[in-house]
Amino acid sequence: MKVLVTGIKGQLGHDVVNELTKRNHTPIGVDIEEMDITDMASVDRVIKEAAPDAVIHCAAWTAVDAAEDCIDKVRLVNATGTENIAKVCKELDIKMMYISTDYVFNGEGTNFWEPDDLDRQPLNVYGQTKYEGEIAIERLLTKYFIVRIAWVFGINGKNFIKTMLNLGKTHDKLTVVNDQIGSPTYTFDLARLLVDMIETDKYGRYHATNEGICSWYDFACEIFRQAAAMGHTEYDADHLTVTPVSADEYPSKAKRPSNSRMSKEKLTENGFERLPTWQDAVKRYLKEIEF
Description:
The strands form four sheets. The chain has a six-stranded parallel β-sheet, sandwiched between helices. A two-stranded parallel ribbon has the order 6-9. Helix 2 (40-50) runs parallel beside helix 4 and helix 4 packs parallel to helix 5 (125-140). The longest helix has 22 residues, at 71-92. It is globular, with a radius of gyration of 19 Å. It has helices at 11-22, 40-50, 64-67, 71-92, 125-140, 160-170, 187-198, 216-229, 265-269, 278-288; strands spanning 2-6, 26-30, 54-57, 95-101, 144-149, 152-153, 173-177, 181-182, 185-186, 204-207, 214-215, 241-245. Helix 1 links the parallel strand 1 and strand 2. By secondary structure, it is of the alpha/beta class.
């Protein structure tokens, strides 16, 4: 199968291309230099020249706070760009997978969000524009996967784990938010699932994160615990103290969801293998990076 992947400079796009290659599919990786998703003519030309069997659309504007100051630019990337790709996929009658986010929900309460919950009430510009991308796909296509992910980390790019490891080297005390709950997602694991999905015609909306839930504080503590167990003593309890705090103590331009719990039962119902626990993912990830 020939699959066009957008956003290959990002954490997820990079791993999706590797996973496709591993399975003897033919990935065609593009980023903004090869295809400007905001330019319909560019999208039309590149996809038609590639003639893929499917598109996995990972490219997005993901700078959440910066998005608050430039809604038109963000909408152009996340909503219009997605719609442009969907239009060509419709014309060519090929599958499209759109990577979305837990931010399409209002982030309140303690219930697990269901993939087919239609009461999506985004809290910020990033979430709103990703939601508009979902709407465009649902309006234009029948052969689509909308896959919502959260708290992403991978080899290629910045993420929470790398940030924590860097801070832990230069500080002996850290404070981390403990009243936002969700599930970390390792792009290496996620890429495997996405390719599993694109090989089928089990279309629809899905949630895909590593198993288990935690707060950002829990996440940080586990990162440091595992790093210390690997012999990096600067992260052990004698050298580093991590204190839980409320999100109110970290005011940000964009409002963040306090509840990012997402139900993944639909994966099981459709015969897809769910991801390993987030703690297991952290362990494997730390072995892959230099710190």
